[in-house]
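Give me a protein, keeping tokens residue-aligned:
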Amino acid sequence: MALSSRERAALRAQAHHLEPTVSVGAAGLSPAVVQSLEDAFRSRELVKVQIGRNASLSARDAAAELAGAAHADVVQVIGHTTTLFRENLELRAREAARAARAAAKDQ
């Protein structure tokens, strides 16, 4: 799924305050890093990844490979940090149900 420039801008704004939740070290893109990214995508749609300075790949190359491995979109790459997005319909359904329950409780 390709993001439009408007969607990408909105996601960049949402990601601004996020801390990196996945780190890529000198070992590069190991299966453990990909699994860590998958775990992060189970609980959120937007994930920041810190690429270590000793990593064997550039930040742009690492972002592209991680996005391909996780079936996600690269939102941005700044320095050694990249932000990835993957739509999670199950998560959105849970949030909608939670909001509906809160609205019903308020009435």
Summary: The two ends are 39 Å apart (CA to CA). The chain has one domain: 5-106. Residues 89-106 form the longest helix (18 residues).
